[in-house]
Structures are given as structure tokens and as C-alpha cells.
Amino acid sequence: MRSPIVLVPACVNQIGAHPYHTAQLKYVAAVADGARCTPLILPALGAATDFAALLDVADGVMLTGSPSNVHPGLYGEALLDPSQPLDPARDATTLPLIHEVLQRGIPLLAICRGFQEVNVALGGSLYQAVHEVPGMADHRESRDDPLDRQYAPSHRVLLDPGGRMAQILGVPEIMVNSLHGQGIHKLAPGLAIEARADDGLVEACRVADAEGFTLAVQWHPEWRFSDNPDSVKLFSAFGDACRAYRANR
């Protein structure tokens, strides 16, 4: 039996004089080596994407993190800081993709920006600057730090004891890295909270009535996942769900 195929939507980034569709190596490696699936990078083509053709061959979808933010117009707000990076082509690809994936019951794992995309796609909203919200911690990394320090464990998250994440990891709390300026404000209808930070910010969620695997996390489990037992369990569970989906097509 062939390896399950997992779609990894790309970002659009300017490299030199030209724009490129890009996907970071660490996400691709997490799919290939952590979930033991075959990653297939999906260009950010927006409305030109043939979602039906792609999802006919997909056994899973992983939404990656990105330096860019979901455009606030998609949840009914004006852009507060024009200096923040945006990626409208990715927005136009991933948000409709999420609906198609959930309709088909395809396993979905969403990370950081992907976590926020799931919330926005299903009708939720975001804090555009979590650190400016009274009572919230500053969840951003220091860009001056080396990567090892940026991605080092930063704070704990408390898992819902009846949730899927707690079932997979087998613990009540974990330490996670934190590299995001935005976060969930209004939780979308149909999403169930899987984990919160100590300041109350939602750090993981799932689609409550989904039959299959649908987990979204604000942190970055893909960073050196093989060195982190929690990340190993998460990607293994995602890969197992993709294999089960393929077997039950």
C-alpha cells in the first residue's frame, strides 16, 4: 500500500526579484518523518485551485505556520498595523480548503497560522496583537535570539482532560514554544477548546463534531519534533489518522 498523501499549502514569498510558492523544510520533514506520509506542496492559487481534484488524492492536510497573518478583513476588522505581513493568496487558498477538508472528513492538522486560519474560516476572530490585550502575556519570540532560543519551551498549556490532545499525549499539561503575535479572540462556532495558556489564551482546538482527526495548535510541534516526545506522539497520531482514512476510502 502506498504512503498516504498529505497536502501542505504553500505561502507566497518574494525572494529576490521574483515571488515564489514556498513551504519550510521543517513542516515537510514533520509530515515525511514524523507522520510517515508523503507531503505534496499545494501552490497558493486561490480560486484557481481545483480542490476536488486535489482532495480526491489527499489522505490528509497540514496547514503550516508562516510569518504572515490572516487578513483581518476576513473576520470583519480593519488592519490595525499596516507593517504586518499578509498573504492574500494563501488566505484565498486555505480558507476554502478547510471547508472542503471538513466536509470530506479528511484528517487535518493545523499549526500556528493554520490554527488561526481554521478559526477564521469557521467564523471566529483574532486578536491582532495579543500583547496589547489587558491580562494577556506577550507570546512573541525575540527576533534577535538564535533559532534554538526562539523555539525553546516558553510556557505551559493546560489540556482539556476530556479532549483529543490529552488522549494522544496522556498528560494534563505540556510545555510549548511561543512565536506568535496574534491569537484567537472569538472562538468559531463548532470548535472545542483543547488547551489554554495560563493567561487564558486558546492554544489548541478541534472541530467538535468532526468524525475524523481535526486538531489545531498555536505552537510549533514541527520544530525538531523528533527530540520532543509530545510532538512525536502528535505527528504519529496524525499519520495514523491519514492511514486509516486512506484504508477506509
Can you put this structure into words, describing what you see?
By secondary structure, the protein is of the alpha/beta class. It has one domain: Class I glutamine amidotransferase (GATase) domain (Rossmann fold). Helix content is 29%, strand content 23%. The protein contains 7 helices and 13 strands. The chain has a 9-stranded mixed beta sheet, with helices on both faces. Strands 2-3 form a two-stranded antiparallel sheet. The model has no long low-confidence stretch (mean pLDDT 97).
Structural class: alpha/beta
CATH architecture: 3-Layer(aba) Sandwich
The Cα radius of gyration reads 17 Å
Tell me, what is the CATH class?
Alpha Beta
Question: Percent range for helical residues?
Answer: 25-40%
Number of strands: 13
| H/E element sequence | EEEHEHEHEHEHEHEEEEEH
CA distance, first residue to last residue: 13 Å
Q: What general outline do the C-alpha atoms trace?
A: globular
In spatial order, strands of the major sheet run: 4-1-5-6-13-12-11-8-9
Which runs of at least 5 residues are low in confidence (pLDDT < 50)? none
Total tally of structural domains: 1
How confident overall, as mean pLDDT?
97
Strand content: 15-25%
The CATH superfamily turns out to be Class I glutamine amidotransferase (GATase) domain
Number of helices: 7
At the third CATH level, what is the topology name? Rossmann fold
The description of the largest β-sheet is: 9 strands, mixed
